[in-house]
Design brief:
It is found in: Cell membrane. The chain is of the alpha/beta class. Among the domains are: 206 residues, Rossmann fold, CATH 3.40.50; 99 residues. It is elongated and about 135 Å long. Helix 8 crosses helix 19 and helix 11 packs antiparallel against helix 13. The chain is 36% helix and 21% strand. It has 20 helices and 24 strands. Strand 9, helix 6 and strand 10 form a beta-alpha-beta unit.
Length: 664
């Protein structure tokens, strides 16, 4: 079995949002603030039929999912009537008596209960198989909290479910404290049914209430839906003034489950992050003019959901943070896990380890792991004479120059009318070489026979084509210097003679350890570990090291620090990147607002704003760095213009010096 502890209701101070005195008036109903009453509010003879009809109507909104119904002895008769009236349109139905779920272990201690492991497994399997809704008809509110907490603790509770609870709560303070209990404060769709005194003292009505989030500067507050009216009835003008709220006439998407979390009412959320360009760029002067890709996304979410942001750095001085041997987390991740921060971001990868301790929103970007390498030197200019042709072409050309002279000599030996000059191999070599160099030959050395003429003409045509191609290519290579050939793949990295490495924390190298690819295994075996990002970049600048990190970060780093005045990168990022990572925001586990954040993030991504913002950040960083270098050098070399509010440098090269061609 699985041991369960008793979790009583919170004793913390609570304000009363619906009452200032002893009663709260809703129509003509009274929410009794005292636990004493002349009417037994939980007398099922008075309220049973109303409750059955209410549960039957609620079931119409629950029939697309499985239903789990937990009841106690007081609700036996209600359950029997409900089963007879309910249309049984659920995916599946499961009924459990509360006493069968929790078993008393120690008879001397009634609070020492044990929850059967089979029950936990059943709840969890059903949660994974289909959507699930809960109906809890339990008189004792402590027992309701205990059941939900145990399911929550064992990850067997579906927090996206609709939860209907009928229990004994006598005043607004008790109701609010109950709704603030864990995990009820994590379930968005809760319908709480409590009994209240009706029009007449001997009547009992059903009060429907739920919680609301981030209103009146409270995280969880009480929201009274109304008094349930079984059916519409004709009333006099006097009765109409005090009539119960008729929920059948409510114009809501759901009359029992009102929409929530569409507006945070200006509530201030605590954000934990740190300076990590380009996603987070904090104002280093101590102000609030923060920037960065993820800061822009957060501000868009705040604008859409109407909340304010209190942005702070982790109090312990750590950045992302890590798990200590005692299980506690440090840094921003620790603050989110403990609930000290409502949201955190700094290029968080959505990984299985993180999802064990926090929730993550939908991805707003996909990043890849790349290597950054030194920019290799371009080939020396004296090699320009051989660069027009590839080595294969040069080899074929040399082979042709060696074979054709022998072919001409053998042809002349077989032709009786040919000149004896072609019968010497050295003369044939000079003749062929002269044709290849497009040089004219004396008339006395011209071929006289048809076979010799055909052989020479064929070779002259091929030599002419080769010569023209070479001259045109050579002209281009002389005018435009050849670019260096940097490392762009893992195979090229192995052949480059460079060493390679990664940070000494973060587990980056582990992504290669399980690979069966021989190239990946060689990369894994050659990893060297450096101290932090700065240590890796320093090794790269030494000229013999390749450093692996986030491709997005490396791209921004090159633009903002390693781009010359002409916009040319001084370090190279490999084109072959690997291990894609989804990036999102971290929120406390099972937060009610994670889903709403994800909805806004998805809209931002679909609008193309994330890509647009990141490109702007990279372009602005590169321009700022070029202007800084220009100021240090005190020179020019670039034409500066303004496009869409962003300064752009246009480098003038040989392409701009070419004359225009007339249009046909």
């Amino acid at each position: 079995g699985i041991t369960a502890k008793n979790h009583g209701r919170s004793k913390r101070e609570t304000r009363h949002p619906t009452t200032d005195g002893s009663t709260a008036n809703l129509g003509n109903a009274k929410l009794v603030e005292s636990t004493e009453s002349t009417t037994n509010l939980f007398d099922m003879k008075l309220v049973g039929l109303k409750l059955v009809e209410l549960l039957t109507e609620i079931s119409e909104e629950l029939q697309d999912c499985a239903l789990i119904l937990v009841y106690d002895e007081i609700h036996d008769e209600v359950l029997e009537q409900y089963i007879r009236q309910e249309s049984n349109q659920f995916v599946s139905r499961s009924f459990f008596k509360f006493d069968d779920i929790f078993v008393q272990v120690n008879k001397s201690n009634p609070d020492d209960l044990q929850m059967d492991a089979k029950m936990v497994n059943f709840f969890n399997d059903l949660r994974l198989a289909t959507c699930t809704n809960y109906m809890l008809l339990v008189n004792n509110p402590d027992s309701v909290v205990q059941l939900l907490f145990e399911l929550y603790n064992f990850r067997a509770l579906q927090l996206a479910a609709k939860c209907i609870i009928h229990t004994d709560l006598r005043n607004s303070s008790e109701i609010l404290n109950f709704l603030r209990e864990l995990p009820l404060d994590r379930i968005v769709d809760i319908l709480l049914i409590t009994n209240v005194v009706g029009r007449r003292a001997e009547d009992v009505d059903l009060l429907l209430s739920t919680h609301t989030f981030f209103s009146e500067n409270e995280r969880v507050d009480l929201h009274i839906i109304g008094i349930w009216s079984p059916s519409k009835r004709q009333t006099t003008s006097t009765e109409a003034q005090t009539d119960h709220l008729d929920l059948r006439g409510r114009k809501e998407t759901s009359k029992f489950f009102p929409e929530k979390l569409r507006d945070f009412h200006g509530f201030q959320l605590k954000v934990s992050t740190f300076h990590y360009p380009p996603v987070v760029m904090l104002d280093q002067t101590g102000g609030t003019d923060h920037g960065g890709l993820e800061v822009r996304i957060l501000m868009m979410i705040a604008q859409a959901l109407n909340f304010r942001v209190d942005l702070q750095t982790p109090k312990d001085g750590q950045r992302w943070g890590s798990q200590r041997p005692d299980g506690h987390w440090t840094g921003a991740m620790g603050e989110v896990k403990r609930g000290d921060a409502d949201v955190s971001f700094a290029n968080y990868f959505i990984t299985r380890d993180r999802l064990e301790v926090v929730d993550m929103t939908s991805l707003h970007s996909i990043d890849y792991t790349c290597f950054i390498t030194p920019m290799p030197d371009p080939p020396p200019q004296y090699t320009v004479v051989v660069r027009p042709f590839q080595m294969l072409v040069w080899g074929c050309l040399v082979l042709t120059l060696l074979i054709v002279p022998f072919a001409l000599m053998f042809t002349s030996l077989r032709e009786t009318g040919s000149r004896t000059w072609f019968r010497k191999i050295d003369n044939c070599f000079l003749y062929v070489f002269g044709i290849q160099m497009t040089q004219s030959l004396p008339e006395e050395h011209l071929a006289k026979t048809n076979s010799m003429r055909i052989s020479v003409i064929v070779y002259m045509l091929s030599a002419f084509i080769i010569a023209v191609s070479y001259r045109s290519s050579l002209f281009s290579f002389i005018l435009v210097p050849a670019k260096a050939r940097p490392v762009n793949s893992l195979q090229q990295l192995l052949q480059s003679g460079l060493q390679w490495g990664v940070r000494d924390r973060g587990g980056w190298e582990s992504w290669f350890s399980d690979s069966k690819d021989p190239t990946a295994q060689k990369i894994f075996e050659g990893f060297q570990f450096v101290k932090g990002l700065s240590g890796g970049i320093e090794r790269v600048l030494e000229g013999d090291f390749a450093f692996m990190n986030s491709g997005r970060y490396l791209r921004y780093l090159v633009a903002s620090n390693f781009t010359n005045i002409y916009g040319q990168a001084e370090l190279h990022i490999t084109k072959e990147c690997f291990v894609p990572f989804r990036i999102g925001f971290a929120t406390p586990i099972f937060s009610v607002y994670t889903r709403r954040f994800s909805e806004v993030v998805n809209k931002v991504v679909e609008a193309g704003l994330v890509t647009k913002w990141f490109d702007e950040l990279v372009r602005q960083a590169a321009q700022h760095h070029r202007q800084k270098v220009k100021a240090e050098l005190g020179g020019s070399g670039a034409q500066i213009s303004q496009e869409d509010g962003v300064t752009v440098a246009t480098v003038l090269g040989l392409y701009h010096l070419q004359p225009p061609y007339p249009q046909q």
